[in-house]
Prior knowledge:
Layout: H1 8-20, E1 30-34, H2 38-48, E2 53-57, H3 61-74, E3 81-83, E4 94-97, H4 103-116, E5 121-125, H5 131-137, E6 142-146, E7 156-160, H6 166-173, E8 177-181, H7 186-203, H8 207-217, H9 223-230, H10 232-242, H11 248-252, H12 279-291, H13 301-317, H14 323-332, H15 343-350
Parallel strand pairs: 1-2, 1-4, 2-3, 4-5, 5-6, 7-8
Antiparallel strand pairs: 6-7
Helix pairs in contact: 7-13, 8-13
Amino acid sequence: MSGPILPSGELHLARIRKRLSDGIPLTVQHAVVAGGSPQALGMAVALIETGCRVTLLEENDFDVVRARDMLARTGKGAGIALTTDTDQARDADVLIEASGGDGLARVKLMGQLAALSPRALMVSLGAGVSLGSLKDQVEGPVALIECDAPPPAIGMIEILKGSDPAALGLAYRLGALPVIVPSFLGARLIAAMEDEAEALVFQGATPWEVDEAAEAFGFDLGPCAAQDLRGLDRALARHKLTGHDLPLIARMVPEGRLGRKGGVGWYRYPGGGGRVIDPLIEDLAREEAHFAGVAPREIGPDEITERLVGALLRSARAMKVEGDIIDLASVLACGFPEDRGGILHYAAELGSGSPYRI
């Protein structure tokens, strides 16, 4: 189910971009990124490409080697200093925590780093940390941000309301559009698509069938491949918080299926290269469906597309936020096709003839 391409879509997004793109980049001589997540690596690469000095702070020597290997495979990030020595965070202009770990541990780390660079803008990337707890721990300027596009893409940075205004300058320096939000939007949209994709695989589709249907519709990347890039452990952490009841991710992560950073997730990534179909995931999904008493069935591309887009639209319509921002987030965080103008714009253009269940 490809649906019509709407000529007004790109114009709609161009107007939004123009409104958000007028700002002054933050001056940064030295940036420190702490954490071994794919998002941390993507942020470090984006920063060094702006011309500043970048230190990537890892927890242990194993993580340093893994990060170095990942950077080497991508051919990006030349010049990034990798270290476990927190003293290397001294005199930084901006410190970005992007570990993806426990919230209390992240706040504690931010406090330790702030003591080394008290004038730095202290930024925590991703949900799980409250702005209040960060301000209690750090005396200087602080910000909570999110960038949900699959690494290393950074097209939009969400900045939680109440963060220091310097976070806007950081977004402009990275060439991203800053959006001030009451809560992170992209993560909610992505969660809706990821959960629907997992349900489709659980019920009988394969990850590659799901991704092929999504990419045929025009998504930049199918939801399973995109989740592999973000890290399946992030999805498992979200499942535990929300009480998500599909068992696939809950089994995959403990078995070492972390996504691309672990070499295997919904797909395999031999030698750190591109995705390769993994028939073992079919066996895993069928086994879990059998345990749950679910009979797998064939699911065609039209149903896959209808369910993915429908899930995204339901999530978008539940948000009490300006529709333009949701449209932008659906494109830059979820990879919704740009020529369709974003999920709400697309649905409005289709009108009452929309095939997507709300």
